[in-house]
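Format is chain and fold; as here:
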Amino acid sequence: MAKIGQYGDTPTCKIVLASAVAKNLLTEVSNDLSKLNKVPSLVGFLANQDPAARKYAEWTQQTCQENGVAYELREVDREDLEMYLLAGNEDASIDGIIVYYPIFNGRQDQYLQQIPAVIKDVEGLSHKYIFKLYHNERYIDEAQTQKSILPCTPLAILKILDHIGVYNKILPYGNRLFGRTITVINRSETVGRPLAALLANDGACVYSVDVTGVQQFTRGAGIKKKMHEVVDMWGRDLTGCLRVSDVVVSGVPGNKFVVQTQDLKDGAVCINFSTERNFEADVKEKASIYVPSIGKVTIAILLRNLVVRATTYDVTG
C-alpha cells in the first residue's frame, strides 16, 4: 500500500501507466498520418519463440490497426532472416521494417541490425543513426531537414520522463536534465547504453550499471561539452548510485533481480522497462512516481518513427 500524505487521504506515489503517455504520442501520429498521401506500411519479422517478442508483435499489430497503419507480421526461420530483410529493402511497398529480437543473441544480432536499409529502419538501430545519437547530433544531413531516428525503447523512456515533468522546460532545449542524477540498470547495446548517452546528452549525470560495474555518463562539469563522456567508476556500486538518484530506470531480464526499495532515495522516480518486475512490491513506499511498464509507449514511438521515415523519404523512387 502506498504511503498516505500528511492529510491522511493522499497517496504520496503516483502510478503512471504507459497508455496515458502513448495516447498523446498516438494523437501526434494520427495528425501526421492525415498529411500523408498514402497509408504507410510496416513489416515485422519474427524469427524466434520468445514469448515477449511475440507479445510485442501482437501489440504492434493491434496499435497499427487502431491507428491506420498497414502492418504485416512475417514469421521466418532465423537462418533465412537475412535473406528476407534484404528482399524487404528492395520492396517498394514497404515503408518500415522491424525485427523482433533476440534472434541468435550476441554479435550475430548486432550484424542483423545493420541489414535493414537506413530509409526503412524504424527502430533506429542502423549505424548511421547510432553514430548521430552518440555524437549528440539531431539531423542526418547538413541542411538539417532529415531528423535522425532514435531507438524506440530509449526514446520511449525520454518521452515518459518529459511527460511526468522530469525535464526542466525552463532550461534551454538539450540541457533540460541538468541537475538530475539518473541510474540506468542495463547497459545493452540496444537499450541501456544508448539510453544513458541520450540522458547525459540532455544534461543529466547518469550512472550506467550492469554486472561488470558502474560507468558514469556526463557532459562534464557544467555540461560544457557537446556530447557525453564515459568514466569507469571503480569502487562505486549499485546501492551507492540508487541513494543519490532522482530517477531509477531498470530493465534487467529474468526474475532474479529486483531493486531494493530501502536503497532508493526518497521521492525517486522509478521506471521499469523489463518484461519482469525489477522493483519490489513496496516501491510505492519511497517512490514519488512509478511507471510499471513502457511497452505501449515504445510501440507509439515505433509508429512515430515510421511516419517520420514515410514523410522524409520517397521510398517508391
In short: The first strand starts at residue 14 and ends at 15.
